[in-house]
Write a structure and sequence with these properties.
Helices cover 48% and strands 13% of the residues. The protein is α/β, with parallel strands linked by helices. The strands form 6 sheets. It has a 9-stranded mixed beta sheet. A 4-stranded mixed beta sheet has the order 8-7-21-20. Strand 4 (107-109) and strand 5 (118-120) form a beta hairpin. 44% of the residues are buried.
């Protein structure tokens, strides 16, 4: 009995020393930072890819696009597009292949602080936000209410402290700002004040672009500064499914190109409604539509920075309601990333668009399956990957916090397994089998402890009794505590006071 007790005490002491050693180095090593290389998951075979892409080219060459704004149609016809017998604008395969060859293959998405810069292209994966939630899950009451400008500002400074969220696109609409110009300017201002990470916004009308970029120039110190380091991209849907251009969005695109705003061209068709219900047919149409957006941008200016954001969305065909979570939308967006990678274009897809209203098991499972699928597929930018609830109608502070930790696990999966002579460790295995018979405390284990393993802050790994003694909190409560703490203590103001005064003198800033 005494020997067993001593052995148990020895094991406990070893664990304590390992924990202490890990804690000492914890701040120095992150085994799964953003920017891991994906592409391991390929839901489409090479033949599948080819058929879908071929059909997309055929759609553009034979069916073509309708409702083409006159200015762009004139340009496209001059560059080699044609009108078919139905009066629709068509692009030949050879023309589209030339456009793809001349398109931007990669570019830097800047933060206002260069430490947040990252390159778009290849198969490096970054997760960020998106959405236009009109409701916010209130941090205090736990109930939904209309989203406000203050919520948007709070979300911006929250993500400023969440390491796995590589950029912040406005995630909610300030329903308390009814004027269109005020809405666009104050949305852009909230992003400017709350974080130095790269950001993204949308412009309701083209007339909003110049005032917003002028404001950004002012914050950066002078005219033309934004163009030298464009830290904000524009979310635009220049193509409306099925297969027509949207005149207002085309005008916004043209205005953004004039002011050097990178374009995130989003195609968001819905299966069985604005796109075919079969998954293959949907991917063919949405690929064609995203290529039509690529043609728009590159015929205006070849090689202009554009994210090829094909977001195939799903509706529940029983009810017609948008379905943000599930296997179908996960595999569709993973396949979209695979197609974009095959075309060699900077890619954007969507994930984690849970239908759950509460921070619960449904939310966790739906978010995780789609984030893993799109990450492993090698999408460059995964939008909606955190914070969104209620089929994109809601945004949640607690969900942002939990999703940020989830993305650590996803990044770890995308990183994969490194197989080297060191990691195989044949001689360590030999020595251990001949010696102590376990790997606890060995140099190999201590090195791998930080290099290969992620240790969550929020997820509970205690035994049931210890968990109860600590208060028995569920994930929602734990995340709420962390969100409250960040919002209480983190009050960045990233706009120089002199610039802020100039901005407030010129614009109707409501924050």
């Amino acid at each position: 009995m005494a020997d067993r007790t001593n052995a148990r005490q020895g094991r406990q002491g070893g664990r304590a020393s390992r924990v202490a050693a890990r804690s000492a180095a914890e701040a120095e090593i992150n085994p799964c930072p953003p920017g891991q290389v994906g592409g391991q998951y390929k839901p489409l075979s090479i033949a599948d890819e080819r058929q879908i892409i071929d059909t997309a080219f055929q759609i553009l060459a034979e069916i073509g696009m309708s409702e083409v704004p006159a200015s762009f149609q004139t340009l496209a016809l001059q560059k080699g597009a044609e009108l078919n017998e139905s009066g629709r604008l068509t692009f030949s395969r050879s023309m589209m292949e030339d456009i793809i060859d001349g398109a931007a293959r990669s570019f830097i998405f800047h933060g206002r602080d260069s430490k947040y810069d990252f390159e778009l292209g290849g198969r490096r994966v970054h997760f960020g936000t998106g959405g236009a939630a009109v409701q916010t899950l209130d941090l205090e009451s736990g109930s939904y209410r209309p989203s406000t400008l203050r919520d948007l500002s709070d979300f911006a400074r929250l993500i400023d402290k969440l390491d796995n969220i590589s950029w912040f696109t406005r995630c909610c609409v300030a329903t308390d700002v009814p004027d269109i110009m005020d809405l666009d300017i104050n949305t852009a201002y909230a992003l400017l004040r709350g974080t130095r990470k790269p950001v993204g916004t949308s412009f309701t009308v083209a007339e909003s672009v110049d005032p917003v970029i002028d404001m950004y120039d002012c914050a950066l110190g002078g005219e033309g500064r934004f163009a030298g380091r464009p830290f904000c991209k524009a979310h635009i849907s220049p193509v409306i499914s099925p297969l027509r251009y949207g005149e207002d969005a085309v005008q916004v695109t043209q205005a953004c190109i004039r002011r050097r705003v990178p374009i995130n061209a989003i195609i968001a068709a819905q299966s069985g409604a604005t796109a075919p219900a079969p998954l293959a047919g949907m991917l063919a149409q949405t690929t064609a539509e995203t290529l039509a957006a690529l043609a728009l941008v590159n015929l205006i200016e070849p090689g202009y920075p554009m994210i090829f954001s094909n977001w195939p969305l799903v509706i529940d065909l029983r009810t017609g309601a948008f379905s943000g979570g599930g296997g179908e939308i996960s595999i569709l967006n993973a396949a979209s990333a695979q197609i974009s990678n095959r075309l060699g274009l900077p890619s954007g897809v969507a994930s984690s668009m849970t239908d759950a209203k509460a921070v619960d098991a449904q939310m966790g499972s739906e978010k995780a399956m789609s984030a893993v699928a799109t990450g492993l597929a090698g999408a460059n930018m995964v939008y909606e990957s955190c914070g969104m609830t209620a089929s994109l109608l809601g945004a949640s502070f607690e969900a942002f916090v939990l999703d940020n930790e989830m993305l650590n696990h996803v990044n770890r999966m995308v990183r994969g397994v490194e197989v080297t002579e060191e990691t195989l460790g044949f001689e360590t295995i030999r020595a251990t089998v001949a010696g102590e018979g376990h790997y606890l405390g060995s140099a190999q284990t201590m090195n791998a402890m930080q290099r290969d393993y992620f240790y969550p802050e929020l997820a509970d790994r205690d035994d049931p009794r210890t968990w109860e003694q600590k208060g028995g909190k569920n994930a929602w409560q734990t995340a709420r505590d962390k969100a409250r703490s960040i919002l209480k203590h983190h009050h960045p103001d990233y706009i120089p006071s002199s610039a802020d005064r100039m901005i407030r003198d010129r614009y109707n800033i409501l924050l």
